[in-house]
Amino acid sequence: MKQMIIHGGKPLQGDVWIGGAKNSTVALIPASILSRTPVTLEGVPKIADVDNLMDLLSEMDVVSDFHNTTLRINPEHIKMSPLPSGKIKSLRASYYFMGALLGRFGKAVVGFPGGDDIGPRPIDQHIKGFEALGACVKNENDQIKITSPAEGLHGATIHLAMPSVGATMNIIMASVTAKGQTIIDNAAKEPEIIDLATFLNNMGAIIRGAGTDSIRIEGVKQLQAKTPHTIIPDRIEAGTYISLAGCIGNGICIHNIIEEHLDSYLAKVEEMGVVIDATEDSLYVYPAGDLKMTQIRTSSYPGFATDLQQPVTPLLLSAKSGEGVIIDQIYPKRIGHIEQLRKMGADIKVEDNIILIHPTAKLHGTKVSAGEIRAGACLMIAGLMADGETVIDNADNILRGYDRVQEKLRLLGADVKIQDAPNE
Ligand SMILES: CC(=O)N[C@H]1[C@@H](OP(=O)(O)OP(=O)(O)OC[C@H]2O[C@@H](n3ccc(=O)[nH]c3=O)[C@H](O)[C@@H]2O)O[C@H](CO)[C@@H](O)[C@@H]1O
Ligand SMILES: C=C(OP(=O)(O)O)C(=O)O
Questions:
Q1: What ipTM was estimated for this complex?
Q2: 22-230: what fold?
Q3: Over the stretch 338-370, which tens digit does the pLDDT of each residue have?
Q4: Which residues have any ligand 1 atom within 6 Å of their CB?
Q5: Which positions in this protein are listed as binding UDP-N-acetyl-alpha-D-glucosamine (predicted)?
Q6: Which of 62, 99, 117, 275 is at a distance of 20 to 30 A from 83, taking alpha carbons?
């Protein structure tokens, strides 16, 4: 286990470069096995989820090589293997091997995925989609076994009960090689879905409408990667640094962003009083000033992302007056960070899954634990704001999705160290 040790209270300034999107990367790596030729991904973030997916690829004899920000994946000698347990549990996105193996081999055996502890995370919509394509899905001993009929999968119209990112991506991967047309209605519209569709279309898939709520897929025989694919910037990492800059920044320029992907987030933080200048692919956040309290309700893209409700919380704590409210409609139980923030002196509580926040003039460093990735990001910002030393246990959760975080924070002037936790 890792821990992050922060000596807070230092104003941060300078430049930070955002990495490739975790939630694209973790779909594109499994999707790579749909290609009959080697795949090159550029702009890949250095995060633990990538290491774990590479280990899963090697279980199928798929060789991968990650150097700087380029990941090469060679699926030419792939062998169809069950992925029942082990690394599967280390991340959520391992469930994309269900759709990818189904699209490539017409069958899959994949253990029930792990991922962040943010409340119930059912996968009924993924299964409904696979079944609509003609697959038989069984849930046995914590493993999902999926088999296509002898004649292969066929296209279908699938109406998702909610715009699930995972179900949309999984159904796309399973249906790109199915016979005929598949339509996904009430599809998720996140930018990462468009990234997946672009990647697959460049390999010969026919996917139209990604980024809208109706996606149409015409099945093709097989896919072949021909050109490298550059992953979109991570809008959640960018939002995390914007929040940090708004709380304790002394002028921070955030590079490699797509501003449009952050529209609802930027509207909210600007309404709070964070002053931002945008240029083509970077944002300059002016030194932290007086902030107004606000109310936030998360929703699917293009709404305010659930993955940013925790990273934005320190900004609300920094407001001068009033009561702030955060309601996470996607994951109402995503509240594990609250108790940890209270240990640091934050005036924050939860009532009926509604987070209530009051201005907190000073946080103090103490020992806290990152129950999941974005709780970790929230505590990291709180630790940078706090007086004294903050020790964040379970910092592995931060490393799951924050690219080169120690290096980036140090470049901004932070006193931060990630180390192995001592045995207790
Ligand atoms: C790897 C990845 O991309 N993870 C993201 C993805 O997770 P993930 O794809 O798992 O999240 P979904 O979009 O599927 O979930 C959205 C909502 O739908 C519900 N649901 C989902 C599927 C299903 O079959 N049944 C069901 O009830 C979930 O419980 C949740 O309330 O989107 C989430 C919501 O933006 C983000 O927090 C995660 O960072
Ligand atoms: C919930 C998240 O990740 P995952 O779906 O990979 O657990 C996240 O990135 O905030």
A1: 0.99
A2: UDP-n-acetylglucosamine1-carboxyvinyl-transferase; Chain (3.65.10)
A3: 999 999 999 999 999 999 999 998 999 999 999
A4: 23, 26, 92-93, 120-126, 162, 164-167, 188, 306-307, 330-331
A5: 92, 121-125, 307, 330
A6: 117
